Amino acid sequence: MPGKPSTIRLATASLLTIAALAACGHDADPRSAGPAANPSSTTSASSTSSASSQGAPAAATATGTPTQAAATATAAPTTTSPASHPAPPTAKVAPPATHTTSTAPAPPPAQAPTQAPPPPAPVPPASLPNAAVAAWQPMGALVAMTLPPSRTVGLGECAKVVGATAWHEQGYISAQKTPAQEDIFGFADAATAAQAYAAIAAGLNGCQQTSRDVQQGAGVPVDATVAATATTAHGLAWSRTWTGVPGASLGGAQINHYYLVRHDTTIIIAAFTELGADPAHRYDTAGDSAVLTMLADHSTS
């Protein structure tokens, strides 16, 4: 896909969007299904050093005496000298220096960064909340990609994901032509996933004020209300009732439902929208605890 922005913002009729995927670059394979980062490894070469050879001093030569001359290999006429001088001592020749090569120990091989396990497949449409009324159907194919850990993925107006290395996204459409979406993020380790989960939860807990700020800036009625609807050991749920601002959400009166679940290195975020201030067959949020349990069970499959 064209472009590699540092931030991807999902823009849909619900909390998240498939449309903004067009703004996201495939930094590695668009999954194919397994995540892969593109880190670089650096390996240091061994270094060698050599000692210098020491030059040997030249040997001294005795000359000028008949005794020494007679000792030469080539005969020469002899002469007589009044006194015989002893030959100077022979100089000792230093042995040549030994050439040595030292090799530094090779560094350990660079370790590839830990990769996130592949996220699970999306839940079946019939398992989504409000399925009996909505009759959800997949909208488009599953989008799967890998991400550099530095990439930020915006979640509507209120939250964002940082540090994920894998991302699966599936959109759905109801019989009433309302949207739903499931986003599954994989992280390299549980600690990074826990940090991301806490940041997303904080954003959604503060979504009422964020939504009102967006409304005020767009000049629409400032009427957003956000309520927590369920809490389990693995997840949280919220609903937002407001006059939507076109962009990251649909415009007009609507109710958005958000679900956040984490298990180990996986985070699942699901959302769906009901249109109108008081939609027919309005969804009962009393079922949200069961939705969180279903998503948590699915995250381990």
From TrEMBL:
Region annotation Disordered: where it falls in the sequence: 26-125
Secretion signal span: 1-22
Top-rank taxon, per record: Bacteria
Keywords, comma-separated and alphabetical: Signal
Stretches with biased composition (Low complexity): 32-104
Bias (Pro residues) ranges: 105-125
Protein known as: PknH-like extracellular domain-containing protein
Provenance organism: Catenulispora yoronensis
